[in-house]
Amino acid sequence: MANYACNIEWSRGDAAFTDGKYSRAHRWRFDGGTVVPASSSPHSVRLPYSDAAAVDPEEALVAAVSSCHMLWFLSLAAGAGFVVDRYTDDAEGRMGRFADGHRGITEVLLRPQVVLRGARVPDDAAIAHLHHEAHAHCDLAHSIRGEVKVEGGWRHLP
């Protein structure tokens, strides 16, 4: 099995912290060198303690599911001989409550718009089948309620 890793870094700076008036802005660093500015959602923590221009975890989850679906769709379409010129998705995640009482992203709505070209022209059923298969292959779409383990450490500075 593959392992996926990233580094998340936050620093308090000179904020008091215990009053809750500290920045939630932080950075995500990925193995290829990409650094993404991140923050809590302004829906969760009011401005200016959140950074509205940064990616929040909820948006990232929706983007990851949408991206996974798209990548599988493109692969399956190519395998079926269809030429995809463009794929866009205005995906949306909805926060709610699960039956067990926990809040979370209860639904991810994908709205892909696909532009194809070439001699091989699919019908609606073929496109629906590609989306169905892409969803079936996307491990992230099946992982949202997966187990999260915490294995960390800590230290105290005098």
UniProtKB/TrEMBL annotation:
InterPro entries per record: KH_dom-like_a/b (IPR015946), OsmC/Ohr_fam (IPR003718), OsmC/Ohrsf (IPR036102), OsmC_Ohr_Peroxiredoxin (IPR052707)
A Pfam family matched in the record: OsmC
Database matches in SUPFAM superfamilies: OsmC-like (SSF82784)
PANTHER family the record matches: OSMC_OHR FAMILY PROTEIN, OSMOTICALLY INDUCIBLE FAMILY PROTEIN
Record protein name field: OsmC family protein
Gene source species: Ramlibacter pallidus
Upper taxonomic lineage: Bacteria, Pseudomonadati, Pseudomonadota, Betaproteobacteria, Burkholderiales
